[in-house]
Amino acid sequence: MSTPIEVAIESIELALDEAKTVPFSKNKSVDVDVIKAAIEDIRLSMPDVIMQANKIVSERGELLEQARKDANQIILSAQEQAKEIVSENEITKGAQAAAADIMQQAKNQANDIVEQARQTAAELTDQAQKWATDMRTSANEFVESIIAEADDALTDSVNEIRRARKQIKLAASQGALRTE
After folding, report:
1. Tens of pLDDT along 27-46?
2. Are the CB atoms for 132 and 61 separated by under 8 Å?
3. Which residue, among 4, 35, 7, 8, has the nearest Cα to 19 in the 3D structure?
4. Quick one: DSSP state of residue 21?
5. Cα–Cα distance between 38 and 143 in angstroms, integer?
């Protein structure tokens, strides 16, 4: 599935591929309106890329919250198990030790889950920010490249027209001299 930016870039490439060659030169004539429309589509799509990055950041928060809930649930479950062990064995030292071990394991597990969630969320955030920055940089470079190519093509075309006019004027003035 193509993104709006990819579609706009493809339309620019298509306009360049379908451009007609300017007579007497290597240059091509492009439809400036097609290029401008594609550039505008790229500019309008940039907020979508940024919104996707923000969504990833938001999901990071949700992931952390879910990890906290899971950790709390594990702790509650461990506490319930500890209470059951204590009540079944009438608060013996063995039951207390087992309960403490279960609690420690639950806390360790909870801490591990929260830490993993933080690391994953940080990685997702970093990737989203890098992706958004790369997309902006690539789009800006591509647009600058297209504009420079269009500028060069138009300059070359104007120069070709000026040379042709000079040749026509020269030929006309030479023809007028011959008829006299």
Report:
1. 888 888 888 888 888 888 77
2. no
3. 35
4. E
5. 9
pTM of the predicted structure, to 2 decimals: 0.40
Neighbours of 32 (CB within 10 A): 11
Q: Are 177 and 70 in contact (CB under 8 A)?
A: no
The CB-based long-range contact list for 143-148 (8 Å cut-off, 24+ gap) reads 143/39, 143/42, 146/12, 146/16, 146/35, 146/39, 147/39
Alpha carbon distances (Å) from 165 to 29, 80, 169, 177, 178: 19, 95, 6, 18, 20
What the block records as the tokens of 38 is 């594609």
DSSP state letter for 149: H
Stated as kind and residue range, the H or E segment containing 90 is none
How far, in Å, CA of 105 to CA of 109, rounded? 6
Domains of the chain: 4-179 (1.10.287)
Write out pLDDT tens, residues 143-177: 888 888 888 888 998 999 999 999 998 888 887 66
Question: Are the beta carbons of 53 and 131 closer than 8 angstroms?
Answer: yes
